[in-house]
Amino acid sequence: MHFTYNLAALAGLAQGWPNFEKHSLVPRAISYIDSETGFTFSETRAAATLSSNIVYRIAQPANVPSGQPYDVVLQVVAPNSLGWVGLAWGGSMIRNPLTVAYPNGQKPTVSSRWATGHSTPQQYTGAAYTPLTKGNKSNGTHWQFTVKCTGCTTYTGSAGETTVDPTGSKRLAFACASGKVSNPSSTSASIPVHDVYNYITQDFSAGANANFAALLSKNGVSGGATGNATEKV
Ligand code: HEM
């Protein structure tokens, strides 16, 4: 099923007359400071169903030189009703890095994929994921992962080499399914087709981190200094 409803508009309608004209759209992306990892993320909530959201958070170094590849930290919080969630960094399913993740006990598995058509994506070696020591967990209602990605924001797609602008708003795509993955500890597990796909607008400017490499280091991960070459770790 493909949700095209505007939930904010529906919420506005639900408020009913006479307050109808007062309703305003919620900002699409906000800054979220994660006290656990210390990163400042841009955050978007994507409707997985009419009553549940997937939260997509992206952090990147401040002052990335124009056109230069850069690492990101991706944090996603998903309801336990979902068997997998995905993010398409180029804004569509085909020919761009796909981050696919599924719950796996306490620590979700994150898998790098790439699709050449509207069929099961294959594994993709152009992007590498490193889990942070914090921010990977699950509880009775949600599962969450937090990873560094090298290669998510620069890729060779249908339009040649493309780098996602770290300073602007960008349309990304997401997908999810309630169907569970049968061998969730494997990064090459088969995933059932999505029940839902849709688009989110991520305002990267809300997730710039001047101390990106130092924060990675605090979370047990090296690298990530792109755009911050003079930063002291
Ligand atoms: C078993 C795996 C998958 C299969 C079989 C599959 C199949 C398909 C098919 C048949 C469509 C077109 C259907 C329609 O128009 O309603 C589609 C569209 C789409 N899929 Fe997938 N898909 C898979 C995984 C993924 C993943 C992992 C993502 C993102 C992380 C994704 C994102 C999208 C998006 C955004 C669209 C909308 C059209 C587009 O952007 O190309 N899909 N998929």
Task: List unreliable stretches of 5+ residues.
Answer: 1-21, 227-233
Q: CATH architecture, please?
A: Sandwich
Outline: globular
> What does the radius of gyration come to?
18 Å
For this structure, the CATH topology is: Immunoglobulin-like
Spell out the helices and strands N to C: HEEEEEEEEEEEEEEEEH
- Classified by CATH, the class is Mainly Beta
Give the total of beta strands.
16
SS summary, helix count: 2
Q: Overall mean pLDDT score? A: 88
Distance between the termini: 46 Å
Please name the fourth-level CATH homologous superfamily: Cellobiose dehydrogenase, cytochrome domain
Largest sheet composition: 8 strands, mixed
The bound ligands are: protoporphyrin IX containing FE
Considering DSSP H and I runs of 4 or more, what fraction of the residues is helical? Answer: under 10%
Beta-strand residue fraction: 35-45%
The domain count comes to: 1
Which structural class is indicated by helix and strand composition? mainly beta
What would you note in describing this structure?
It contains 2 helices and 16 strands. The protein is mainly beta. The chain has one domain: Sandwich (Immunoglobulin-like). Strands 1, 2, 3, 4, 9, 10, 11 and 16 form an 8-stranded mixed β-sheet that branches. It has a 6-stranded antiparallel β-sheet with strand order 8-7-6-5-14-15, with no helix packed on it. A hairpin with a 6-residue loop joins strand 1 and strand 2. The relative contact order is 0.22. Protoporphyrin IX containing FE binds next to strand 5, strand 6 and strand 14.
